[in-house]
Amino acid sequence: MSDTDHGFGNRGNRDASVVNPKGRGTVDGTRRSGAVQPGSGAAPFLAATALRGGYGKADILHGCTITVDRGQIAVIVGPNGAGKSTAMKAIFGMLDLREGAVQLDGNDISALNPQDRVRAGMGFVPQVANVFPSMTVEENLQMGAYIREDDFRQTMDQVYTLFPAVAQKRKQAAGELSGGQRQQVAVGRALMTQPKLLMLDEPTAGVSPIVMDELFDRIIEIARSGISILMVEQNARQALEIADIGYVLVQGTNRYTDTGAALLANPEVRRTFLGG
Amino acid sequence: MSGSRQSAAANPWRAPALLAVLVVLFVLEGSLSNALFSGSWNSALGILNMGLLSAIMALGVNITWGYGGLFNAGVVGFLALGGLAPVLISTAPVPGAWDAGGVRVVLALVVGLLTLVLATIVARRVPRAWKFWAAFAVVGVGFVIYRFLFDPAVIAIEANNPAKAGNIGGLGWPVLLSWPVGGLLAAAAAWGVGKVALGLRSDYLAIATLGIGEIIVAVMRNEGWLARGVLNMSGIPRPVPYELELQADPAFQARVAGWGMDLATASGIWVKLSYAALFIVIVLALIALSELAQRSPWGRMMRAIRDNEVAAEAMGKNVTRRHLQVFVIGAAVIGLAGAMMVTLDGLLNPAGYNPLRYTFLVWVMVIVGGSGNNWGAVLGAVLIWYLWIKAEIWGPAMMAVITAPMEAGALKSHLMGSAPHMRFIAMGLVLLLVLRFAPRGLVPEK
Amino acid sequence: MDIANALVAILNFVVIPAAAYGSQLALGALGVTLIYGILRFSNFAHGDTMAFGTAMVILLTWALQAMGVSLGPIPTALLALPFGIALTAALVLMTDRWVYRHYRRVRADPIVLVMASVGVMFVMNGLTRLVIGVEEIRFDDGARFIISVQQFKAWSGLAEGLSFRTTQAITLIVAALSCWALFRFLNRTRSGKAMRAYSDNEDLALLSGIDPERVVRMTWIIATALAVMAGTLYGLDKSFKAFNYFQILLPIFAAAIVGGLGSPTGAVAGGFIIAFSEVAVTYPWKKIAGYLFPTWQPDGLLQLLSTEYKFAVSFVILIVVLLFRPTGLFRGKSV
């Protein structure tokens, strides 16, 4: 629920003949980007450090730090309300940070708005509402490639090769697809920009275990092609199995940080966060 | 959400401050005579009376908007419908009109209503695939019968003394009685519209009320048998004495002489003051009722529904029903104002019902005053009405200053000629500025 | 039974006027539906944008006529139209910059934008009155008829005449061309698809690198162009009167809703449905009945509703559609 009380409270929101809340955004799209600063040289490929901030007055993130190296799969796990999705949004510039910096590929991009972070090489797949429902699969991918001026047909073929199931439905509206296929379209859309970093917010939420395994396989495939992956996951155990690095977030701060295998082996982590 | 509204709680001095500003404005209008003010108490009281009526309209809108969060874009229609009541209730009966076709008209209207009811029943009972066509057939047959009954009767009524009457005529009852009737008429229309526009998955109230508003005004313009249509209905009885009666009354003459005033001016002021007193009583009564309602369990429920419809629905509240209720009540108040306005003017002039003036200006009043706050709506209404009237004078005054260095010519005379229209721009700007810098209005909701 | 004359009368009094009126409504409804789909509110200022734009076109037409410019048989207003659109679009973009953008920035509820559009409506209304007044203005010049009644009668030998006015032909052509261009734009071009994407899911459009402000600007420009075209064609076809443009808001909204708010196809279909019903319901069918059933002598004019009630027609259709198909005929989807 967003805090959108601009004088009228909740009045008038029901009247479909005057207002259209469908597809409405939560992010201020009018914000202009600031300048990109040179980052500190030795930082990893993505380094989001000491993030503090939230949606309203109360902070959700209390100084958490997330880093991903080139070609790595990083996974954020943690209990509900730990600020996992908020951290992702913060890294993508979708909420105002009070403190902290985001560095990508040696540049400090903290002042960029989300549109320009896409241009800087980041791709983001939100947890919900991650396709354009009334547009066809093909159009969804085209919109993914919106910022590209070059010929992106090859990338589209790669996406279709990666996800053969959606290739057959390229002329169908994305809103009519099954949950798993929609998730594939969503990932495909993000890949169309040829990002250097792909961020996935709970990509397996609400899909069947078979589809989940398949999606994880594809994610590994994507990482092997040299794209860094940052992913939030509810299915922590499976996700940590494929993670090069794992973060356990609790109340907006890092509780444990280690390789995926080490976290899975850590009895404390197992007992508290992986259910034994 | 409610938290931030609480935190921005209103300064308790805002309403009295705005009231003081209004008092100063009216005193200036009444006492100062220059390019900006007329210096006539008659004019000041004239503005005040219409301002008070606007305040009642604003209260009506504020009930639907402030308590229910519903957007009524057809204020003008309910207002016009309310204005029908003084004509039907309190004007003298027209000899011969009822005999010419009164029964037949009533019968036709009953048939029309029954057709709609029957169509609704049919549409509910018939299987899905056929329900549209079944209802369509019922309406078609009903319409033919209706026209068969209606047309000759209307022709007969309108042929009855067409120069002076041609309408069905009134009942000759006291005019004050017609005010609540005006409210009832508007409420009935609102119930019909609301039943349809509020019963769907989401509301379509704004567009439905915009439509019904236009239709009601069109009906009043064209149905000459009802209230003479565009020929206007004048001579509507008054609840207060006439100026000429006062001027002829020796007691009044003596009193005026004692005050050292001009008899004509004094009688005008006296009449306007009587109206003002009457209107203020009604405004205060409406505010009191409205505030009482707001503090009652009913009002708490309305607020709960407005702030979180989903939760209210989960608690078993019938949201649609409550919305219909609040919409009908709001329309009734607007209808009441409509009846009062026609009484004040002594004239029903259907061509004068302009949606910009009577729907959207009332909305400006509510938003500027403060949505959800009755005092805000009332003070905002009087303020906006004052500005609306004075802007027509201030516009040309300002334009005269602007164009003073220009040579006389077509452009200058065009600008001077269209300067009164600047009040539309002024009202738009007032609304935009308030929305931007004081979105809760001048007197925000507590 | 005289089918030929009946058909000609139907064509002359119902089909041609309704098609022209329907095109005007469709253009207006397209603008409303685009703004509803992308800016997410119903723009109450749309009627007054039409009026202001038409006023600009009229002033430019007068200027062109004063300079002796003429398009021969085609109304000069058509030449002034692009400039009128440009001027109006400039004003509308200024209102976006000064009024609406703020509310996008603070992510205000759409209802706040509705209220703001009421304010803009007042301002636009005042500006229109200021620049051109409230009088009725006719500004069509050039050839009045493509086919006149006399010509048709002489050619066909029928008792019933048929006239096809230049303004009606231009209305149909301009409307068809602009609809075609708009649909092509929305379905084929990158910018058009970006608009649809933004309408579908604002946040995801942002995440695809689409600049929302650019989408919004394009929407205003397109909607304004459609509105000024609709207004000018309506004015050429009938006459210009500022208040009529306010009143046409109801059939335009009705057309957009009947078709399904947010759906351009729906807006066009809705425009024609409203226009044809309005004309058919308010047309006195007595003459045509006389051709078809010469022996039947009805008392009345066989007019279902008098012309003054034409707004009731849009309203009734609106209610019927909402009752039987609440999402509109074409399911309000995305732009």
Describe the model.
The complex is a heterotrimer of chains A (276), B (446) and C (335). By secondary structure, chain A is an alpha/beta fold. Chain A has ten helices and eleven strands. In chain A, the strands form two sheets. Chain A has a six-stranded mixed β-sheet with strand order 7-8-9-4-10-11, sandwiched between helices. A five-stranded antiparallel β-sheet of chain A has the order 1-6-5-2-3, covered by helices on one side. Chain A is globular. A two-stranded antiparallel sheet of chain B has the order 1-2. Chain B starts with a helix and ends in a 9-residue tail after the last helix. Chain C is mostly helical. Chain C has a single domain (3-246), classed as ABC transporter involved in vitamin B12 uptake, BtuC (Orthogonal Bundle). Chain C contains 14 helices and two strands. At the A-C interface, helix 2 and helix 3 of A face helix 3, helix 4, helix 7 and helix 8 of C.
Question: What's this, in brief?
Answer:
The complex is a heterotrimer of chains A (276), B (446) and C (335). With 276 residues, chain A is an alpha/beta fold. Chain A has helices at 84-91, 114-119, 137-144, 153-162, 164-167, 179-191, 209-224, 236-242, 260-265, 267-273, and strands at residues 37-38, 46-53, 61-68, 73-77, 97-104, 107-108, 122-125, 197-201, 228-232, 245-250, 253-258.
Which word captures the global form of chain C?
Answer: globular
Please describe the biggest sheet of chain C, giving its number of strands, its sense, and whether it closes into a barrel: 2 strands, antiparallel
Radius of gyration of chain C: 21 Å
Query: If strands are numbered along the chain, what order do they take across the biggest sheet of chain A?
Result: 7-8-9-4-10-11
Number of strands of chain A: 11
Low confidence ranges of chain A: none
Summarize model confidence as the mean pLDDT of chain A: 89
> Which shape of chain A, going by the Cα principal axes?
globular
Helix count of chain C equals 14
CATH architecture of chain C: Orthogonal Bundle
Unreliable stretches of chain C: none
- CATH top level label of chain C: Mainly Alpha
Structural class of the secondary elements of chain C?
A: mainly alpha
Order of helices and strands of chain C: HHHHEHEHHHHHHHHH
Largest sheet of chain A: 6 strands, mixed
The helicity of chain A comes to: 25-40%
